[in-house]
């Protein structure tokens, strides 16, 4: 066997999985078809629960350069409708602006796992106890064997196709999507704030979508004066997809959508214009299973959807965090029966839910008076805090609750909040190890004795916090609560369910 795990794809999801495996003592092999890290702009930020998840691994500080914890966003959008969240308690919709290239740099450096770039998987063969990959590398073809293979190779995943995993869904070809990275000139653009003052529309904030009766306009500024803009126009154009769209085409699309000549030019400081057109359809598809034997899928290999609302990396990176510790447990020999199957049973419904709300948001952007009327009604509904919380939790993933078994405590199955703890520390600091954690808030020796046989894989901390949510809380490595309360029988059951049989302790 050449390696325990091969990760195919060195985008954010593959690199996040490499980080999680390394924390658990497994060193994967990472293959990437591209010869170097992509230079063209892709995703430009993270939205939702994943921002907290990065904080729980110390990666938020690595991205921002600040030890300060993330703060929830007071404002966002749902289908370009305003979502005011400043008055919500426990708002879980966090935003972290970061270009994908920078995120990949941080994750790769943190993982400490070399990436084999220019190594493209051509085929795979599944066996009972391993997988064989046919790989084309810079020095020619070779075979690579692994106990497990994870496809993080995008929507056109070779791993998914060769494993025979279906990818049902729809292709929406009812609009043309154009994007580019351009300089927008004054006086329309305020390069100090990134705002645009559009005649007839007013001042627009970066990072927002704006619907008109002629299309959709979205933009963000990631360097002074340089904007990433997107334009959507409804109706079939008869054009084809291209990465060599002329700037004039983007300029004319902006004029049709906004009704003005948007003063723009290509960057002159070495930054790519990255002008492209997508007219052949946007896919919403979900793999019919995330696991086929020793082959698993994460990220876009498992699900693709509209980018409205920025859900992609929130979904994909949490796939990787959910899978990492389970796959490592399988390799390290202590996984209970069926643990690896819970990756599919937990994450696939979340993928389906994201596809649902991204389709709903796309529908809210459509042209026509009927859509305009629907938006007016929803705008009224979103004045109510209860409705805002429901939508905010939907977009952030805060409404995800996993089935953890018999424990009935309200916190069970939900995300563990970042509580302040004894010794001027926090839960996020303890979670950086990537290990299961048992927090004993009530100094209960019986709880610690019950968990003692699992201390080779579960860390026990006796600590305090203001208004403790329970006597004790057992947290999985992915940040979700496996058990909470004080019932020792439930604790033992949960420890076995998620962390396997205990080791034998010395007698006496």
Automatic annotation (TrEMBL):
Cofactors named for this entry: FAD
SUPFAM superfamilies for this protein: FAD/NAD(P)-binding domain
Keyword line: FAD, Flavoprotein
Domain FAD-binding: 2-357
Segments passing through the bilayer: none
One of the Pfam families matching this protein, by short name: Rng_hyd_C
GO MF annotation: an example: oxidoreductase activity, acting on paired donors, with incorporation or reduction of molecular oxygen, NAD(P)H as one donor, and incorporation of one atom of oxygen
PANTHER family in the cross-refs: BINDING MONOOXYGENASE, PUTATIVE (JCVI)-RELATED, TRK SYSTEM POTASSIUM UPTAKE PROTEIN
Protein's name in the database: 2-polyprenyl-6-methoxyphenol hydroxylase-like FAD-dependent oxidoreductase
Organism, scientific name: Saccharothrix tamanrassetensis
């Amino acid at each position: 066997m050449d390696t325990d795990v091969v990760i195919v794809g060195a985008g954010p999801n593959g690199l996040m999985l490499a980080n999680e495996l390394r924390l658990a003592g497994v060193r994967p092999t990472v293959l990437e078809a591209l010869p170097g890290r992509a230079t063209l702009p892709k995703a430009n930020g993270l939205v939702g629960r994943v921002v907290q998840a990065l904080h729980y691994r110390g990666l938020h500080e690595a991205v921002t350069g600040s030890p300060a914890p993330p703060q929830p966003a007071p404002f966002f959008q749902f289908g370009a409708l305003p979502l005011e969240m400043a008055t919500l308690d426990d708002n879980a919709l966090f935003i972290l602006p970061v270009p994908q290239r920078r995120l990949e740099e941080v994750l790769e450096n943190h993982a400490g796992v070399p990436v084999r770039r220019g190594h493209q998987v051509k085929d795979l063969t599944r066996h009972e106890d391993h997988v064989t990959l046919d790989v084309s590398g810079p020095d020619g073809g070779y075979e690579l064997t692994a106990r497990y293979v994870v496809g993080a190779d995008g929507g056109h995943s070779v791993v998914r196709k060769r494993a025979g995993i279906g990818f049902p869904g729809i292709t929406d070809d009812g609009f043309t999507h154009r994007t580019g990275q351009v300089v927008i000139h004054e006086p329309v653009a305020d390069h100090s704030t990134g705002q645009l003052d559009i005649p007839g529309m007013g001042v627009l904030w970066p990072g927002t979508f704006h619907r008109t009766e002629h299309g959709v306009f979205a933009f963000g500024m990631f360097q002074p004066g340089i904007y990433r803009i997107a334009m959507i126009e409804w109706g079939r154009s008869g054009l084809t997809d291209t990465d060599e769209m002329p700037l004039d085409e983007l300029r004319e699309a902006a004029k049709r959508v906004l009704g003005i000549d948007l003063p723009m030019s290509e960057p002159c400081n070495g930054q790519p214009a990255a002008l492209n057109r997508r007219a052949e359809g946007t896919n919403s598809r979900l793999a019919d299973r995330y696991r086929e034997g020793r082959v698993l899928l994460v990220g876009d290999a498992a699900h693709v959807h509209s980018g409205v609302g920025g859900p992609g990396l929130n979904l994909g990176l949490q796939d990787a965090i959910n899978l990492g510790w389970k796959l490592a447990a399988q390799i390290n020999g202590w996984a209970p029966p069926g643990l690896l199957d819970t990756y599919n049973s937990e994450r696939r419904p979340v993928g389906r839910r994201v596809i649902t709300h991204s389709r709903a948001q796309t529908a809210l952007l459509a042209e026509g008076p009927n859509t305009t009327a629907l938006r007016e009604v929803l705008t009224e509904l979103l004045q109510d805090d209860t409705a805002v919380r429901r939508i905010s939790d939907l977009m952030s993933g805060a409404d995800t609750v996993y089935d953890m078994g018999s424990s009935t405590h309200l916190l069970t199955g939900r995300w563990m909040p970042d509580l302040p703890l004894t010794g001027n520390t926090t839960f996020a600091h303890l979670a950086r190890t990537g290990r299961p954690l048992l927090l004993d808030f009530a100094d209960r020796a019986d709880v610690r004795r019950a968990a003692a046989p699992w201390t080779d894989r579960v860390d026990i901390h006796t600590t305090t916090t203001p208004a403790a949510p329970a006597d004790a809380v057992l947290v999985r490595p992915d940040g979700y609560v496996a058990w909470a309360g004080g019932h020792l029988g439930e604790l033992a059951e949960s420890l076995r369910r998620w962390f396997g049989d205990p080791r034998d302790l010395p007698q006496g």
